[in-house]
């Protein structure tokens, strides 16, 4: 999905016009599991009772259906279709054209992202990822600020870069397949003021400081032979990327700055396994709080993780053996969702529960 800057800008404008004309902002709601995407069946039911133009956009961008070229050109216009093809969003197949990515609308922002696991259009290596936690975490960021400078690491779909109020935002990602989609998403939202940089976490912003640092990094334990795409690769136990982000934040925060980092992970009933490592390596000049959003028995998360490894091509027996090796190295009876908060202070560390809701 590569295109020059002018094509990306034009394609972003086309997607925004389609979303606005079809009233997609009024259809913003999580999917049946709290995720950002519509269930394809529900989207098709919605399309069945919508006007022809709206129905076509819903089928194309929300349901992920293949549509005939002549129908697309008749209702959307041949120039817009050509622009979306040039940008790599529309691709030919099954007698028509389909969108490689689905549109997720959240708090009046529109971002294209890969269909989730279980969706008929799911592809293992397609990026960027956008999941239920993106919406939960995003609500914490929306309207935060105003900040002078905001840094969003592991930006993916750029949703977290779009939500806080900042005079200057820098969005960073390491996955080369994400960057073209990120550029398109920024164009969809008219955010030419957000600087997109390619690289490994803080490397593209060496020596720079920010008032607010955000990240929704990979947090899944890597499978045998690294059998997860980059967007889901959190190292051996899932915590390596979040750990690196927290360790590097003090050098990149301004006076009175704050880092707010989302993560998930296995652990005991009271805290994630990552907490012990973060506590041991914390800065004496910053207070660190691990805010626990939810804690559950880990069985569901384990089965889901093994299923993802198998979807990536790992044999079932090998997947379960790999999990046993991981579980032997850390507490793994529970699974936590959490937000790590880092602010200037006296080096204190605590694990606390977020309030209800």
Give a short overview.
One of its GO terms (cellular component) is cytosol. The protein is α/β, with parallel strands linked by helices and 357 residues long.
What does this structure look like?
One of its GO terms (cellular component) is cytosol. InterPro entries: Ribosome_uL3_MTase, SAM-dependent_MTases_sf, Small_mtfrase_dom. GO terms for molecular function: protein-glutamine N-methyltransferase activity. The protein folds into 2 domains: 5-99, no CATH class; 132-353, Rossmann fold (3-Layer(aba) Sandwich). The chain has an 8-stranded mixed beta sheet with strand order 7-6-5-8-9-11-10-12, with helices on both faces. It has a two-stranded antiparallel ribbon with strand order 1-2. The protein has helices at 5-21, 40-48, 52-62, 69-76, 78-86, 132-141, 159-162, 178-188, 240-248, 274-281, 299-311, 316-327; strands at residues 90-93, 96-99, 102-106, 109-113, 147-153, 166-173, 194-198, 210-215, 253-267, 286-297, 334-344, 349-353. It has 357 residues and is an alpha/beta fold. It starts with a helix and ends with a strand. Helix 1 crosses helix 5, helix 1 packs across helix 8 and helix 4 (69-76) crosses helix 5. Helices cover 34% and strands 24% of the residues. It is globular. The model has no long low-confidence stretch (mean pLDDT 91).
Order of helices and strands: HHHHHEEEEHEHEHEEHEHEHHEE
What shape does the CA trace take? globular
Number of discrete helical segments: 12
User: Largest beta sheet: what is the strand line-up?
Assistant: 7-6-5-8-9-11-10-12
Radius of gyration: 21 Å
CATH architecture label of the largest domain: 3-Layer(aba) Sandwich
Overall pLDDT score = 91
Quote the distance from N terminus to C terminus.
38 Å
Percent strand equals: 15-25%
* Class based on secondary structure composition and strand pairing: alpha/beta
Reported by name, the CATH topology of the largest domain is Rossmann fold
The CATH superfamily of the largest domain turns out to be Vaccinia Virus protein VP39
The oligomerization state is: single chain
